Amino acid sequence: MANQDDIFKNTISHSKEYGFIFQSSEIYDGLSAVYDYGQAGVELKKNIRDFWWKSMVQMHQNIVGIDAAIFMHPTTWKASGHADAFNDPLIDNKDSKKRYRADVLIEEHVAKIEAKINKEVAKAKERFNPFDETMFRSTNARVLENQKKIDEINTRFKNAMEKNNLAEVKQIIVDCEIACPISGSRNWTDVRQFNLMFSTSMGSVSEDASVIYLRPETAQGIFVNFLNVQKTGRMKIPFGIAQTGKAFRNEIVARQFIFRMREFEQMEMQFFVRPGTEMEWYNSWKQTRMNWHKAMGFSESKYRFHDHIKLAHYANAACDIEFEFPFGFKELEGIHSRTDFDLKQHEQFSGKKLQYFDSELNQSYVPYVVETSIGLDRMFLAILASSYKNEKLEDGTERVVLNIPPFLAPVKVAVLPLVNKDGLPEKANEIFSQLKFDYVCQMEEKDSIGKRYRRHDAIGTPYCITVDHQTIQDNTVTIRERDTMKQERIVINQLATIVSEKASMNNVLKKL
Ligand code: GAP
């Protein structure tokens, strides 16, 4: 059986072969951690974005959207803390000249020790029946010794990072005898903090140009527009402002395909509430967002909350919705109770009041904020990885199918004339013209019908409609459903109803 790594590699090559994702500037050997979306990918991405937007904005009376610019006044990033504290600790190997995130080197070292423990447990499991794993882990000398090593490293690293003690971070790397994977040497530079924001300059004359940043999150565009929207939209607290758009981070460890990118898209919503009510809203948004994820129809066991124990200085509660990617459970979305930190910082740095007059309390205050923040590309990866299946069929053949939730599929309907003559293409065109107003459809005339079905399985098209000679006689077509591969003969005027049952986004929104 193929392991998770192989399946993930196959998913990546499949996504390229069928026009979902290409490496950026591939003809120049690509640009690391930057990707382009192809003809199928752009539709899936748009559908995920639409689903988020409709469920967050259109379905709520008290949430509105904005589209703020990517460039913002540089002081924004002083106020938000990104200019001074949006850093990764980096270390270079002097022989290979490769740069690494010090925290990742240490994490990987710990993961190797963990793997040794797991191997020990697996071996014992084979030897003993019955097997008490908890007892084994708490008594076996080798397991205990390795667990002690892990705990020591984690504690040292946590303390070093809390005190920003970079010399100690390097000492941990030295003490753990971590070697560069490329050169194999332990010839390391000191650890330095490296800001993740990309900068460029604005201004026509180089002497006048000022440094500005490509936003590392969309949230700040919402905070600086808080009063503009509140006043012009006559919004009453509690209310939300939502935004989707590009964000940029100079990630040093860029791995796992589109999981961690340098240019990516976020879908964020800041919900402004009366101080003191934020925990109620935080818990409510946690549930609302988890329900949104579950509407995808994947196994519920793929999702879990990870509540943050150690909170950022501005938060009074925070959690991640984690998803089981092929490389394990990882953050998919963050939900943060950010207090009044951001608005107060912007008040202080801009000298402008960012307060709300609460007529019920007859009092002005800086609202508290609960944020929901999800990466669109990461959501795309969650769907792609969970949908990719290599199925063995009863007749001994195989097919690759993407079981993308039908309402998000890039193409909803393929219209396939059985042969390219006898009036069948014209009839197919008529059907295409009826359905195209509601759904992205594709007409395909080339190749055998079997090959065309397979091509549409491979991009996740939920319905294939075949127009044959009987269609000309009695206005019926066959409709083939992607997952069951079952075909049914129906009259053409039933098509829209059948397709809408599964493929309409509104039906899913109604159930949220
Ligand atoms: N405004 C809060 C914020 O930006 P974050 O946890 O840094 O919080 C939120 O990012 C979400 O954005 C993450 O849960 C993830 O889905 C996505 N994200 C963050 N960095 C990313 C990257 N380098 N590539 C792709 N997605 C990323």
Features:
Herpes Virus-1, Rossmann fold, BirA Bifunctional Protein, domain 2, seven-stranded mixed sheet, five-stranded mixed sheet, binds glycyl-adenosine-5'-phosphate, 18 helices, 512 residues, 3 domains, single chain, alpha+beta
Can you put this structure into words, describing what you see?
- This protein is α+β, with helices and mostly antiparallel strands.
- Strand 12 and strand 13 (328-339) form a beta hairpin.
- The radius of gyration is 27 Å and the shape is globular.
- The model has no long low-confidence stretch (mean pLDDT 95).
- Bound molecules: glycyl-adenosine-5'-phosphate.
- Residues 217, 219, 249, 251, 260-261, 264, 266, 268, 331-334, 371, 373-375, 377-378 line the site of glycyl-adenosine-5'-phosphate.
Task: Summarize this structure briefly.
By secondary structure, this protein is α+β, with helices and mostly antiparallel strands. It is built from 18 helices and 23 strands.
> What amount of the residues lies in strands?
15-25%
CATH class of the largest domain: Alpha Beta
Number of domains: 3
Query: Would you tell me the structural class of the helices and strands?
Result: alpha+beta
Helix residue percentage: 40-55%
Side by side, the strands of the main sheet go: 3-9-10-16-13-12-11
Largest sheet: 7 strands, mixed
Mean pLDDT comes to 95
What small molecules does the structure contain? glycyl-adenosine-5'-phosphate
Give a count of the beta strands, DSSP E runs of length 2 or more: 23
Low-confidence stretches: none
Tell me the distance between the termini.
Answer: 37 Å
Oligomeric state of the chains? single chain
Number of helices: 18
Shape: globular
Rg (CA only): 27 Å
CATH architecture of the largest domain: 2-Layer Sandwich
